[in-house]
């Protein structure tokens, strides 16, 4: 973007994948039933939040790489913890590959992600990551409420 | 750091202050008593999480700017919502000023923040921000459990 950049493309991807590794640990900690059913204060079960993450990351990157604006769809047909984890793991190398296809100069370009939010591409991707951190943290509270110790916040490998 | 940087120093600060503006809205939403007393699953009340944020941001930046490693202290003598918000608001321009004092070339330097975590300075600061997003999201669950609608995630102004 400019010579003042303090976070490189590679560093942003590494940070994201580190956060995703921690989110995967949070999914793993949930018992099957509670993953899909437990909630607090009328919020969605954690599985629904995970499906949101899955329906943003790869579809969002695909849209950016192809320069085609697509609506998003959170209704992924994933009904077991195993299916969620398999989808999660399948997306890990897809995120690496798609992210790598975005040319450095494009990160400052404005893009109307999902046809709704017009920001520079780098901000769209920061939003994906921040949204994952946000919902993962809500999963931490669900786990605590269930009497389950969540993973350490710094376990990003 | 290098010409491949996709996030500038100014952009990282703007993103952080946007997140802090949203965290302030979350503090404001809490009733006085619940801010200091309500908890789920044995977790800390939200006021304690806010004190953690306050005891990391400015003290952490001061330590980086002065190049002096200091231990952190979460036991800030803040016992009312008004005191928390005043401390929060007093820290906003301090964060701008301290962050600006860090030379671009220093962000890649390794620094043992609080004498415990040795990472490049840019990663220390990303950790501060991510930790704030994490605890703020836990405040969202507390608010929902109290029947209070949290602010929109995208309200960063």
From TrEMBL, chains A, B:
Keyword Signal: no
Family statement drawn from the similarity comment of this UniProt entry: Belongs to the DinB family.
Alphabetically ordered keywords of this record: Metal-binding
Alphabetized Gene3D superfamilies for the sequence: dinb family like domain (1.20.120.450)
SUPFAM superfamilies xrefs: DinB/YfiT-like putative metalloenzymes
Top-level taxon of origin: Bacteria
Name assigned to this protein: Damage-inducible protein DinB
KW Repeat (keyword) present: no
InterPro entries in alphabetical order: DinB (IPR007837), DinB/YfiT-like (IPR034660)
The species this protein was found in: Sphingobacterium faecale
